[in-house]
Amino acid sequence: MTSSLLFDTSSARDVDVESAAGELRKNTLLWVDLARDEEEEIRRAAAALEITEMSSERIFSEVARAGIESSRSQLHLTVLAPAREHDLIQIDCIVGNLWLLTVHPGSVEALKDFRDRVTGRGELGQLDAPTFLADLLEWVLGAYVDAFERIEDDLEETEIAAIRATDDEIGGWVERFVSLRREAGRLRRALASHRQVFVALAHPEFDPVSTDRSAERFAGLVDTLGGVLDTATATRESMLGSFELLVARAGQRTNETMKVLTLVSVLVLPATALAGILGMNFKVGLFDHPSYFWIAVGAMVVVASVTLAVARLRSWI
């Protein structure tokens, strides 16, 4: 998937990256968006935009955290965007004064939505590339909010299902909860790794591309990032509440088991006591009457029946 958009003051149009690179001037902005498996297109765009060899090679390496590097008149950012399939997608952003190159594996929902939003908006040519990048990264942060909201929805469904689940099914829903907990933690760690990148971009004196205008936007992104991290914290707190619910559900199961065992003990105890007394090794006259055996059995049955009746009357069973 190759997309090259050239923005000027009046229009935004698809262009060839090699020809557009030679036409860049004030009030124009070129955005080139490429899939990582298009290696030939990436190298062609890197040559046209005079991207350094170090950045070109870094595009094809995978990372676990967001990061930033600067060289000459370029910035190379690596950000992580959430996908609907509960995965993280690495987006490499290389920024020059009048152009931005983004490279990622496959389709990224946040970038697709952003492209739909900016297509046809020629006035974006008045922006410098770092400011345009700030707009794009704000869209990525929005994707994190959406991801945490999806986890909240899944968590709510898991809670309801766990409450309604039978004793044999509760274990499967506990595993589902653990999976959601792991996913939320992974998203939060990936999100937090962007803080250092945004803080660095908020200080234009430390890189060769950022301007005062873009620095203000990135400073705003730092605040936005803090808000998204608060959302992640709220999701974590919701999960703790859900865990307490699952513990209570498991405790209810234990209570039901103990109630049954206690009732069985109460039913058997009188019969056990009576059998023990009658089984003592001494001679009593009543042992000479065989009919007393059936009287003893009957007494055991009566005591057990009365116990069951009292338990049912008091809603113990």
Write up this protein.
This protein is of the alpha+beta class and 317 residues long. The chain folds into 2 domains: 2-250, Beta Polymerase, domain 2 (2-Layer Sandwich); 253-313, Methane Monooxygenase Hydroxylase, Chain G, domain 1. It has 9 helices and 7 strands; from the N terminus they run ββαβααββββαααααα. The protein has helices at 17-21, 39-48, 53-58, 109-118, 129-164, 170-192, 194-201, 212-278, 291-313; strands at 2-7, 12-14, 29-35, 67-71, 74-83, 87-95, 99-104. Strands 2-1-3-7-6-5-4 form a 7-stranded mixed beta sheet, sandwiched between helices. Helix 5 (129-164) packs parallel to helix 8 (212-278). The longest helix has 67 residues, at 212-278. The model has no long low-confidence stretch (mean pLDDT 80).
